[in-house]
TrEMBL record:
A GO CC term attached to the entry: cytoplasm
Highest taxon above the source species: Bacteria
Similarity-based family: Belongs to the SIMIBI class G3E GTPase family. ZNG1 subfamily.
Family annotation (Pfam families): cobW, CobW_C
InterPro entries: CobW-likC_sf, CobW-like_C, CobW/HypB/UreG_nucleotide-bd, P-loop_NTPase, Zinc-reg_GTPase_activator
The UniProt record lists the keyword Metal-binding: no
Record flagged with keyword Magnesium: no
Catalytic activity: GTP + H2O = GDP + phosphate + H(+)
SMART domains membership: CobW_C
Protein name according to UniProt: GTP-binding protein
Alphabetical keyword list: Chaperone, Hydrolase, Nucleotide-binding
GO molecular function terms attached to this record: hydrolase activity; nucleotide binding
Length: 333
């Protein structure tokens, strides 16, 4: 079976430093001999920055629209093409500065229904000075979008701190922690961050260990550190991708779906039901589910994806393992 390819999303408002960070990621990949593919999205019709990446970097371009809306359907196609043609160790998606992150997450997880891809993390950058200006105004569409992008990330990079003073940096760090208490926050100049923080996401997202600390609010419901044992009962994640190891019972699955917690607001998948010997495309949004019988023309894996905020991955995985009658069920990310 093919290996599962991790996918990362790079988001952040226009000019925040996404390409600067991507260049660093590609440099590091070259040094560590990691094959990283890039999916670039530009609102305009020309890919200016992509020309700067090395010729040996597998790259797909999506120009002339934003992946989160007008050309969203193409995202899955491009991801699958990159995966099939290059079998990279990782794929990075650089979204336009105006993209809405949750729509992208939705689109990436859609692609994982058809190819062994797993969304591993969302990295969002903020231009310190620009953010500060927006915070001072405190309203407007741009402010709202910036906040949305930063709130959806697993890692938040407060970039361009060379352009702001120490007190402003501290104010922004506090603000970012308030907006997204679950993300790892890093301040940087020229997007110089420890890249292990990103690749280390693979483990930390799988079981996000949030140790109760100085930045937690009094009503923090996160997991607590009990000596050398940390358990996470309230994992903040955006997506759980679970590859099913085999057919499942349709009634048990429907019952499981009807009991999904409210903070799972979207789910989808391809499932094979033991009792009907058919495969179905399953869709779930805002408590409504839908099943469509399908006959895939090529090999696709049985997989279910859940998107939401604050739901417990641990609980869902346990229930899925129960559905598949396995102590240790399918693979997931
Ligand atoms: N002063 C300063 N400039 C920076 C820093 N990081 C990046 N820049 C510059 O900011 C400009 C925009 O950086 P990019 O990396 O292209 O930003 P981007 O998010 O990819 O921009 P878009 O593609 O327009 O969304 C470039 O000229 C960078 O050299 C920083 O930490 N400090």
């Amino acid at each position: 079976m093919d290996k599962t390819i991790p996918v990362y999303v790079l988001t952040g408002f226009l000019g925040s430093g996404k390409t600067t960070l991507l260049n660093r990621i590609l440099d590091e990949a070259k040094t560590s001999k990691r094959k990283v593919a890039v999916l670039l999205n530009e609102v305009g019709d020309a890919n200016v920055e992509g020309q700067l990446f090395g010729k040996d970097v597998p790259m797909a371009e999506m120009l002339g629209g934003c992946i989160c809306c007008s050309i969203r359907a193409d995202l899955g196609m491009e991801l699958m093409k990159l995966a099939q043609e290059h079998r990279p160790d990782a794929i990075w998606i650089e979204s336009t500065g105006i993209a809405r992150p949750l729509e992208i997450i939705d689109a990436v997880t859609e692609a994982s229904l058809y190819e062994r891809l797993e969304l591993k993390g969302v990295v969002a950058l903020a231009d310190g000075r620009h953010l500060l200006d927006r915070v001072r105004i405190g309203a407007g569409k741009t402010y709202k979008l910036m906040k949305e992008q930063l709130a959806a990330a697993d890692i938040v990079v407060l970039n361009k701190t060379d352009l702001i003073g120490e007190a402003d940096r501290e104010e922004l760090e506090q603000l970012l922690r308030d907006w997204n208490p679950n993300a790892r926050l890093v301040s940087a100049v020229q997007a110089q961050i420890e890249l292990n923080a990103i690749y280390g996401l693979e483990d930390s997202i799988a079981v996000k260990e949030h140790v109760h600390g100085e930045h937690c609010s009094p009503d923090c419901k996160h997991s607590h550190d009990h000596g050398d044992h940390v358990h996470a009962d309230h994992d903040h994640v955006h997506a759980l991708t679970y590859y099913l190891p085999g057919p499942i019972d349709s009634e048990e699955f429907e019952s499981f779906v009807s009991r999904l917690p409210e903070d799972v607001y979207r789910a989808k998948g391809i499932v094979t039901f033991r009792d009907t010997a058919s495969r179905f495309l399953f869709q779930y949004a805002y408590r409504e589910s839908d099943y469509m019988r399908i006959t895939p023309q090529k090999t696709v894996h049985d997989v279910v994806v859940f998107i939401g905020e604050g739901f417990s991955r641990h609980d869902l995985i346990r229930q899925l393992e129960h559905l598949t009658h396995q102590k240790k069920g399918g693979t997931y990310s």
